Fold this sequence. Notes:
elongated; 12 strands; Aminopeptidase; acyltransferase activity, transferring groups other than amino-acyl groups; GNAT_dom; 27% helix; GCN5-related N-acetyltransferase; Acyl_CoA_acyltransferase
Amino acid sequence: MNIIRTKTPSETQKNNLLHLQEACRKHDHISLTFPLEEDCTFYLLYDEDNLLSALCAFFNENGEYETCAYTLPSNRQNGYFTMLLDELLKETADNDLVFPVDETCEDTVHTLNALGADFWYQEHLMELSASGFIETGLAKSNPLWDSPALSMAYNPNEEHSPWTFLMDGSPIGSCYLDFRGETAYFYGFVIAENLRNQGLGSACLFLLLKTCFSLSGHKRLKKLFLQVSGENVPAIALYKKAGFQITESLSYYLY
């Protein structure tokens, strides 16, 4: 057995990681992937040329190491994950490790419970298609949606675009869109605290969606994605009302 630590996997190692990832995803029926786009440290456990297990971690903005690991299904319960975790722990000092987990993967949940990791919170991935939004017909139930005093300032030509909601020309809220071809990731939605519970959140969300699905040219969207904490019940209810559907739920464990 040989453990390789690297921040810059070779092309062969990347291919090995993808093969390992797909073998586990197929076996466990999950969609999680290695965060190859992040500045990760990888720990690769090889038996000669065969990658049996891999763990990667990156230091996030909250001061935690977000961690992802896979072991070939036929090589589980051999202590390989523990070997790689021990290598990571030599470098993390007192920082917490965060494990995103699909609860349907029993092997992963069992391993984290045996490790003594604590359940932290759940997060949902939601999506909305242009047709799904049109079919909701929500525009009839909130008079603020047609208010001429409500408007937005944005630049859809920016890949990471900030959008500002205005009432009579004054900012009342904001959000961000990360454009990815015909889809976009929606995040950072907030209404000024002193203006909440007045229907403005619904009105601003509707205005945003109506605008997104009617953009011209290559910026016209077919689908919008967002992530929301399972603890944020009002936000989930709002997004469902707008037509968003939960497509995946992840649990986060802290170690």
